């Protein structure tokens, strides 16, 4: 079963902020792709128009997870969701409440005492229930960035281990390892600490080494028995990555990659109006941005959207315009 949606959007609707918008970058030096992950790379709805599951939901909806956790996660969502969606609330209040939500949820997840293989079981269960789909064209997108060696930085408030597993499920270990080995994929997201995996938690290791180690651990044919209770989760890594902290995480990575003094050419993708704020401190030569709007078209916030984004893809659309922009610039 493919984890990518099997066909393009039937009701394509793409809106540009300006009739003069050009898909061509003037300069391709220092080119990077920055993107949110959940409901940007993945669809909000499946082929039955049922809500898909984001990376946090992979754990929250697992059949073997405790009922106490499910009730608590639902309680937290009902209590805090308004602070994520209501832009009229005070920013500092929203920031405080979203941090509290993520902190309480991650702490509750750790108490469920799972390991990496159990995470893989959780993901497989969601896939079998048709609850996870990448947008049509995402697999081609990864082929494009591999062919032209275009670096991708994912910035997500989701679960890093599950993001990696989903990408590996889509493109396979060989292509994933190529991305990591060639410094083409960096993932900023929330991550767990597992007992007896000190090699993954060495703060002196760079982000790409950690990503490579993670995918090696995801290889279920590995001789080590990852189901051993000695490898269960014991904590989550700090700092927490959430909507209003993303830009600080990006700034740290940019400094680590020694890009902070350069002007970058950037293609950005997100599904939340605030997602693009993650790159607000970057120095740009040129920036083009794509907004995936996954809700009812009649509620599309066009004015607010085009204050921040250049293109809006409505109807929970596909990745074809993303691939078109890349090929227009690099397939010379």
Could you characterize what this model shows?
This protein has 11 helices and 9 strands. The model is unreliable at 199-206 and 215-226 (pLDDT under 50). With 332 residues, it is of the alpha/beta class. The radius of gyration is 19 Å and the shape is globular. It has a domain at 14-51 and 133-191 and 207-224 and 239-330: HAD superfamily/HAD-like (Rossmann fold, 3-Layer(aba) Sandwich), CATH 3.40.50.1000.
Describe what is shown at a glance.
The protein has 332 residues and is an alpha/beta fold.
Mind sketching the topology for me?
Layout: E1 14-16, E2 31-35, H1 55-60, H2 67-85, H3 91-110, H4 116-128, H5 138-147, E3 152-159, H6 160-171, H7 173-181, E4 185-190, E5 192-194, H8 207-218, E6 233-236, H9 246-256, E7 264-270, E8 284-292, H10 302-305, E9 311-313, H11 320-330
Parallel strand pairs: 2-3, 2-7, 3-4, 7-8, 8-9
Antiparallel strand pairs: 1-9, 5-6
């Amino acid at each position: 079963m493919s984890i990518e949606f099997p066909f393009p959007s039937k009701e394509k609707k793409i809106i540009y902020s300006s009739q003069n918008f050009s898909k061509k970058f003037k300069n391709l030096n220092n080119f990077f792709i920055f993107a949110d992950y959940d409901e940007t790379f993945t669809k909000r709805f499946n082929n039955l128009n049922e809500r898909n599951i984001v990376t946090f939901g992979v754990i929250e909806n697992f059949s073997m997870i405790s009922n106490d956790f499910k009730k608590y996660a639902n309680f937290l969502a009902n209590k805090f969701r308004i602070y994520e969606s209501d832009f009229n609330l005070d920013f500092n209040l929203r920031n405080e409440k979203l941090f509290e939500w993520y902190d309480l949820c991650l702490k509750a997840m750790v108490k469920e005492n799972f390991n990496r293989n159990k995470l893989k079981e959780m993901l497989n269960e969601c896939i079998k229930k048709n609850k996870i789909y990448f947008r049509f064209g995402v697999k081609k997108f990864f082929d494009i960035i591999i062919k032209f060696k275009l670096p991708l930085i994912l910035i997500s408030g989701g679960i890093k281990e599950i993001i990696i597993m989903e990408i590996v499920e889509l493109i396979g270990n060989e292509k994933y390892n190529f991305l990591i080995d060639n410094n083409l994929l960096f993932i900023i997201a929330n991550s767990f600490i597992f007992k007896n995996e000190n090699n993954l938690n060495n703060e002196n290791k760079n982000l790409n080494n950690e990503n490579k180690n993670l995918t090696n651990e995801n290889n279920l044919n590995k001789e080590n028995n990852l189901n051993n209770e000695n490898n269960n989760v014991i904590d989550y890594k700090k700092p927490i990555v959430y909507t209003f902290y993303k830009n600080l995480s990006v700034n740290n990575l940019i400094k680590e990659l020694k890009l902070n003094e350069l002007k970058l050419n950037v293609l950005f993708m997100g599904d939340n109006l605030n997602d693009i704020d993650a790159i607000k401190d970057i120095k740009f030569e040129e920036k083009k941005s794509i907004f995936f709007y996954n809700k009812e078209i009649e509620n599309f916030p066009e004015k607010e959207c085009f204050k921040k984004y250049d293109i809006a893809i409505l109807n929970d659309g596909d990745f074809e315009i993303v691939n078109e922009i890349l090929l227009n610039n690099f397939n010379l």
